Amino acid sequence: MKSRDSITRMTLVGTGVVGAVIMVGGIAATVHMGMTSIPVHHLLHAGMTLGAGMLAIAMAAKLPARHSERSAWIIWAILAPILGLILMWPSEYAYLMEHHGLHMLDHLGIIAFSWLAVFAAQAYVRGLGWPMLVLMVAMNAAAAGGFGVAPAPSALLSLPLSTVTAENMGGTNALGVQATSLHVLGEQVAQNMGCGACHQVDGTKGIGPTWKNLAGYPQKLSDGTTAVANYQFLRDAILHPEHLQLEGFPPNRMPTTYGAMLSGPAHSDERELNAIIWYINSLSDRSTSASQPPVPDELEK
Ligand code: HEC
Fold first, then answer.
1. 95-115: per-residue pLDDT in tens?
2. CA max distance for the chain
3. Which residue has a Cα nearest atom 8 of ligand 1?
4. How far is the CA of 294 from the centre of ligand 1 (A)?
5. Whose CA is nearest to atom 5 of ligand 1?
6. Separation of 34 CA from ligand 1 center, angstroms?
7. Residue-wise pLDDT tens digits, 196-231
8. What's the rounded Cα separation, in Å, for the pair 261 and 208?
9. Sign of dihedral through CA atoms 216, 226, 254, 238?
10. Residues near 80 by beta carbon (within 8 Å), at least 6 away in sequence
């Protein structure tokens, strides 16, 4: 009877942990990305997994004792961790940041597969649920440590910068050290934010226009006028895509969420934004100071 009590207690603790973390996870996913950092977010996943796994172990105690009746669970013990891993696939990351509903589903999926993995392992062999629980939590926690996750834009931009001008873009600096130049950072930021889903850089048209030879080139607008893609134009196109109506492209397709992610009070220096515009400039043969962002203060000297 004593063990039964402790199992009930564990179920309660597990349910409590899952409930609390689901709530926080839900809020974090629904509220803006700026609220939590990427490591905190992934620690949250680890917490959800821990709760779900503890619940699973408590529930698995009710399974039949004979191993032969439980051996089929091996399939789920193998499949569930794999499915859970797919839900944490880094390349989905930018997409999920834009689609809160899917992000919520992703979280529910992580909880469900964590539960299933631990339950199935415990069902297959008594005791195997614990190492599985450790494995599943470790998988999530590893992402918090940066493993398998693209670094946050802000982390990238705190790296030492080298001077970037039209002349030396992409080069090495005077010391011969490979330059971490702004446009390389911009490329990574753009990649993290999922711009590549709609914008190609090789001249081919995607859902949105290619970034090749965009900066400094005239853009045809749907009202028949043209505008040169200078810095102000590019900045506006990214921060307020709802103002832009290019000829031959669907209006209102580009997400309007980048404005808050790249500008405003939390990003008043617009470093990520400018890095992206440097990157777009690096893809054009008409890049001039008119199409380039202001050079950051620390590079001015
Ligand atoms: C879901 C698709 C989609 C995503 C994701 C997307 N864009 Fe766009 N983008 C478009 C479309 C469509 C247009 C044309 C808009 C119009 O004409 O109304 C556009 C236009 C632009 C333009 C102006 C291009 C020109 O030829 O004048 C820039 C600059 C731009 N996007 C930058 C970005 C950046 C930077 C990101 C990522 C932070 C991004 N876009 C993400 C679809 C997208």
1. 666 677 788 888 889 899 999
2. 81
3. 254
4. 21
5. 195
6. 22
7. 889 999 999 989 999 999 999 999 999 999 999 999
8. 20
9. positive
10. 113, 114, 116, 117, 120
**8 A C-beta contact, residue 284 and residue 212:** yes
**If we measure between CA atoms, which residue out of 206, 182, 193 comes closest to residue 280?**
182
With a 6 Å cutoff on the Cβ, whether 276 touches ligand 1 is yes
130 Cβ contact partners less than 8 Å away, ≥ 6 residues apart: 57, 122
Q: Return the structure tokens found at 19.
A: 């409930």
Check if 196 has its Cβ closer than 6 Å to any atom of ligand 1: no
What is the rounded distance in angstroms from the CA atom of residue 123 to the CA atom of residue 121?
Answer: 5
Model confidence at 277, in pLDDT bands (50, 70, 90)?
Answer: very high
Identity of the amino acid at 84: G
* Per-residue model confidence (pLDDT) at position 28: 61
Pick the atom of ligand 1 nearest to 244's CA: 18
Q: Which amino acid would we find at residue 262? A: L
CA 159 – ligand 1 centroid, Å: 27
